[in-house]
Amino acid sequence: MANRCQSYRVVCIELVEIAPNYDSTGSTSTLAAQLLSNVRRIVFHVLDQSSEIAR
């Protein structure tokens, strides 16, 4: 996924339809947090690689 992100400029990430009231185990909220964390990590990794190439 990180390789594919190099050709795109991420402008916005939106996560919708998280309903903790209907998720008694909390797994939906945990999954949403992990997803956002992973996407953020990939974006920053790609940005870091891009800045190293420019040097």
Account of the 3D structure:
This protein has helices spanning 2-5, 27-54. The mean pLDDT is 76. It is elongated, with a radius of gyration of 15 Å. The two termini are 24 Å apart. The protein is mostly helical. 58% of the residues lie in helices and 0% in strands.
Please describe the biggest sheet, giving its number of strands, its sense, and whether it closes into a barrel. none
Q: What is the N-to-C succession of helices and strands? A: HH
Number-wise, the strands total 0
Q: What is the helix tally? A: 2
Instruction: Extract low-pLDDT stretches.
Output: none
Number of domains: 1
Query: Helical proportion?
Result: 55-70%
Strand content: under 5%
Radius of gyration: 15 Å
Shape: elongated
Kindly report how far apart the N and C termini lie. Answer: 24 Å
- The average pLDDT score comes to 76
Please identify the structural class as seen in this structure.
mainly alpha
Can you give keywords for this protein?
single chain; mainly alpha; 58% helix; 2 helices; 0% strand; 55 residues
Topology:
Layout: H1 2-5, H2 27-54
Brief sketch in words of this structure:
This protein is mainly α and 55 residues long.
